[in-house]
Amino acid sequence: MSALYRSHPAALMVLFADLENHARGRARVFVGTAGSVLERSNADGFRFYAHQFYDGDGRKRERYLAGPIGAPEADASARTMRLAIVDTKAASTSLRLLGREGFALADAKTYATLASLHNHGVFQAGGVLIGSHAYGLLLNQLGVVGARYATEDIDIARREKLAFPELPEASFLEMLQATGIPFVEVPQLDARQPSTSFKVLRLPLPEG
Fold first, then answer.
1. Residue 194 carries which DSSP code?
2. 53 CB neighbour count, 10 Å cutoff
3. Any alpha helices (H) in the chain, and if so which ranges?
4. What is the DSSP pairing of strand 60-66 with strand 47-54?
5. What was the pLDDT predicted at 1?
6. Is residue 206 a part of any domain in this protein?
7. Of 27, 75, 167, 204, which residue is most buried, by most CB within 10 angstroms?
8. In which region does residue 124 sit, left (phi positive, over 0), alpha (psi from -120 to 50) or beta (all else)?
9. What confidence tens digit (pLDDT) does each residue in 32-73 have?
10. Does 1 fall in a domain?
11. What's the predicted TM-score (pTM) here?
């Protein structure tokens, strides 16, 4: 094989294949870290479950999960969430191992963005990941380590219209913003045309 590339050991390829199959079977994934399930109560004494995690922009978030604590449906929701968290954290440990061995991994913002698009059905509707991140995935699937690349761009392509079973309630921008990352539209030269590019709004750093 060319000196530009080297092969991964067979054992690592088996681990990657297991993780790939695991990912393909997930209808929904966490957007951000897996986090944890907490028990909370409000001023009226209502006790409920909350999901605490870090979003795609690295900020701590907490969302209502189910309640009241002790109700069968609420307890079942908390149990299901906890199992998903354990499962995801186990997969993350294996992913970090693959990253140390040269597999291409997405950074936190890229992962969160792709995860949100997945949860909204963009890829199921025919959206295709292209560009550098797709190249990294192909290297992983081929079992080789290639030259390092660095990009913040995420490129999604589709020659025809996305084939959603039902039109999603969220706009594409809202899908991106669901990550917690401050995406904004990049206007077209013709202002009458919808935006096809989006960028992260760079917020000023606090003074002091």
1. P
2. 18
3. 10-24, 72-100, 108-119, 132-142, 172-177
4. antiparallel
5. 47
6. no
7. 75
8. alpha
9. 999 999 999 999 999 999 999 999 999 999 999 999 999 999
10. no
11. 0.87
Cα distances (angstroms) measured from residue 11 to each of 17, 26, 107, 139: 10, 24, 24, 16
Burial of 61 (0-12, 13-18, 19+ CB in 10 A): middle
Other Cβ atoms closer than 10 A to 163 = 11
| Helix spans in 42-150 (H) | 72-100, 108-119, 132-142
Residue 84: Cβ within 10 Å count: 16
- What is the tally of structural domains in the chain? 1
11 three-state secondary structure: helix
CA distances from 172 to 56, 131, 146, 203 (A): 17, 19, 32, 21
**Residue 103 three-state SS:** coil
CB 83 within 8 A of CB 32: no
Packing angle of the helix pair 10-24, 72-100 (nearest 10 deg): 150
Q: 125, 117, 104: which is closest to 181 by C-alpha?
A: 117
The reply to whether 186 falls in a domain is yes
Residue 152 lies in a domain: yes
Q: What is the pLDDT of residues 195-208, one digit of tens each?
A: 889 999 876 655 55
Angle at 101 between CA 7 and CA 97, to 5 degrees: 135
User: Which structural domain range is residue 183 located in?
Assistant: 6-200
